[in-house]
Amino acid sequence: FSNRLELPKTLSQSQQDFDSYLLPSLTLLYADLDQYVQPQSGHFIRGQLQGGKGETFYAQAMLSTDSFLTPWQDERFRLLFLLQNRARTTLGSEPFHRGFLNGGSWFIRGATQYSIFDENSLKSTQEIRLFFFPTPEDLAFLGLPVTKQSPPLFKNWGAFVNVFVDEGAYWNHAEGLTSQNWQMGTGMGLNIVTPIGLVVGADLAFP
């Protein structure tokens, strides 16, 4: 028995002790959102070209779009429709850490096949969110002494439930995009909205 952890001699992409990269990037943005913390209507489009030249070479193109529509709201509740699209392709030897771009909002919830080494990804999401923002009177009823004069940290909290459908695919150039790569997931979630706009929650999806 030994408590020493045997590490490989090299952990870099090129199998050298370390890699150095030149990483040029071009990003184009378009937005007509009504607000950025919790958008209720509008669109956000982001395109990016990025490459890396060092011990290995790669080039990457990404496009993401987010569209928001709020057909109804009152003092406490808000109904939001969200449409997201993601597309990414990579040429060359992508650095290991760049593969995690397949996660986060790029991840197909409910996917049964997934790898951070996939060179291409497509994803589309249709989602409905029902928000609840309690008033000071609601919080007082729950025994929480929050008033309109309270600091923002103690008010402006909210929550929402969501139902969604995700579809998309992950694949490599060598295998090409086939019907076997296509995946779909449906599910729902519960989320907390913080005063600074950060969303903390969990989604449950089924393939």
Question: Can you describe this structure?
Answer:
The protein has 207 residues and is mainly β. Helix content is 3%, strand content 49%. The N terminus is likely disordered.
Brief sketch in words of this structure:
This protein has 207 residues and is an all-beta fold. 3% of the residues lie in helices and 49% in strands. It has 1 helix and 9 strands; from the N terminus they run ββββββαβββ.
Strand content: over 45%
Would you list the SSEs in sequence order as H and E?
EEEEEEHEEE
Largest sheet: number of strands, sense, barrel closure: 9 strands, antiparallel
Helix and strand composition category: mainly beta
Please tell me how large the radius of gyration is: 22 Å
Overall pLDDT metric: 83
Tally the helices.
1
Ends distance = 43 Å
Please give the share of residues in helix.
under 10%
Q: How many strands? A: 9
What is the overall shape? Answer: elongated
- Ranges with pLDDT <50 over ≥5 residues? 1-5
List the keywords:
mainly beta; 207 residues; disordered N terminus; 9-stranded antiparallel β-sheet
Outline the secondary-structure elements:
Blueprint: E1 21-22, E2 25-31, E3 42-54, E4 57-73, E5 77-92, E6 120-132, H1 136-141, E7 158-171, E8 182-193, E9 199-206
Antiparallel strand pairs: 1-3, 2-3, 3-4, 4-5, 5-6, 6-7, 7-8, 8-9
